[in-house]
Amino acid sequence: MAKKPEYFVHESLQDRNSLIHYLRALLQGIENGEVILADDDETLTLTPNHLTLMNLRASKTKSEQSLRLKLSWTTQLTDESDSAPLFIKSKKSKKGK
Amino acid sequence: MAMRDFSKVYSSLRFLLIDLQKQLQTVYDGLIGQDTSLFAKSQERMDYIENAHLSLLNHSFHSSLRQGREQLPLQGFEHISYSLLNLSLQLNSLSQELQKLKSLKLLQKKRITQALQTLNRGLSLIVPALESEDLALTLNLCQLQGQIDKLGREQLQRYSQELKNCEQQAALLQCSFIVRDIQSMGNTLLKVGEGLLSAKLGQFMQIDRYQSLEATLCDFNQQLPSQDLRIHSMGETKSGCTLSSVQTGQEAEAQVLAIFKQGRKDKLHDEKLGIERWHQAFPGIAPEVYSYQKQGDKAALLFEYLSGETFESLLLDERERLQTAINRLFSTLSEIWHTTVQARRIAANFMPQLQKRLSAVYAVHPEFNLKDKGLRIGTAQQVSLEKLIQQATMLESELQAPFAVYIHGDFNVDNILYNAEQDSVNFVDLHRSEYQDYTQDLSVLMVSFYRLAYFEPKTRQRIRLVMEAIYDFGADYAESQRDHDYAKRMTLGLARSYISSTRFVLDKEHAKSMLFKGRYLLEHLIHQSKDNSTYRLPKELLRETF
């Protein structure tokens, strides 16, 4: 069950127009519920949840400014042997009253 | 420091006892040996006894000043000391009466010497009783009063027979008074015994109350071997009460007979009323109250020990056991609601409750307090938690439950016990029970499961399943009662509980996840209520989101 985490790392220099282009592509992926990240070697597919933790960090010094956006979510990790609902509806008794 | 105070108080008490026993012995010797000079000598002890008593009070008082609150064991000592001083005063006036008598012959009777010896034995029992682990010696001491009283009554009967055919009527009457004085010293000895019980049990308790407990326990066909009754501390409740159990039997097979709860009088009084109302509204769910005692602003409640498992331990147990227990809880709740339903609309006021708790939340998690400032990211805005609560309060004012039922009021996992043998549930900690919206109990219960500090994925999944089960059970009940606003009220109740119970959660990540979920629920409800479609709780929220 405990698989090693898979990583995707990318770094490049972009002008404003191409930056917007990449951000739009990410937005599109989030909307569709699937963000595909690939390079020469491997492909990593993320499936954003409906509920996402958004962590936004910005910093500013005289010489440098940065903005970091971290989105994280949990994927449903169900133990199949223990996933059925626990509540048993009692059908007859209540309607009868 | 507490130990030093204790030993000072204790040694004062021992000095007092030594002098009191000397005083009694001197009176006794004077009576037996017809030596009236000894009566005057016995009276000299009074000064020593008063001094020891004052020194005890002094040490006890200083201790309570330093500790900042009452030291219950020391209060017990004070009670004993007052009674012993009283006994000394009674002995003093007895010796003065004896001095006035022309002859002591009529008092040199077996029953009278036995009564005085019994009194002396009682005094000798005090220190061993205090030092002993159990209550047997204390109870023996209390029983001595009965013996003294019986001896006195028999002697008085003798005197009254002699009165008929005797010329020394005046002397006989004087002797009768003395016997009555000895009897009343027996009563004072009983007061000492009660003080001992109080010191050992940690609160004031009268002997007849103890006997009523004994009687009640006998009704359950339980033998009460008073030799090995033990009091075990069980810690403190969230509301600041201390809990102890009354046990019998040796360590391994110890059996709990009753629970003592002591604390603030207002809380315990509410709890007693809550229990009594449960007995009326739905018998069999709340524990029996054996005794309720108050002293100043403190009180003590002695009630039935209910055996059973908490849902916290069932959560980690086999799925089948948990499922049986939780569905028993559901059917019990349905029965309670059907039985206690009142056809009147009622407001749960979740948002005002939350507003009131915010400062306590911020005290534990100051980083949650954004000082009523909202957030702005570019053109997007997020209102502050305070604003969000205000908006939700507006919404809530239109959401009253269509009926009221008798609810627990503090429906945490720890306050429900499941007895597997009888397949039954019991409630404890009932000081907030009242007629209210049933979503009050359900939302508190759900979040009390969420709040549990188990972080293994399997247990978290269990917690989610239990929360879903509680929600679905409530939804099913709401549907059967045509309660159409269930989802909205539950959302508000859950948001209230998620946010307000972060004050009990010290794990920062866990607390943060609860705050975020609470906030999200409020935003979701406010946002969704703008369109008119049926509102649904965002159930994915019951899952771990990060």
Describe the fold and architecture.
The complex is a heterodimer of chains A (97) and B (546). Chain A is an alpha+beta fold and 97 residues long. Chain A has a domain at 7-72. Chain A has helices at residues 16-32, 91-96; strands at residues 35-38, 43-46, 53-60, 65-72. In chain A, strands 1-2 form a two-stranded antiparallel ribbon. A two-stranded antiparallel sheet of chain A has the order 3-4. In chain A, a hairpin with a 4-residue loop joins strand 1 and strand 2. Chain A is elongated. The model of chain A is unreliable at 93-97 (pLDDT under 50). With 546 residues, chain B is of the alpha+beta class. Chain B contains 17 helices and 12 strands. Chain B has helices spanning 2-33, 37-43, 45-67, 72-100, 110-131, 136-164, 169-201, 207-219, 265-281, 311-315, 319-340, 350-364, 385-396, 438-450, 457-480, 486-500, 508-528, and strands spanning 230-236, 242-248, 255-264, 289-295, 298-304, 309-310, 375-377, 380-382, 405-407, 416-419, 424-427, 434-436. The two termini of chain B are 47 Å apart. The model of chain B is unreliable at 68-72 and 220-227 (pLDDT under 50). At the A-B interface, loops of A face helix 11 and helix 15 of B.
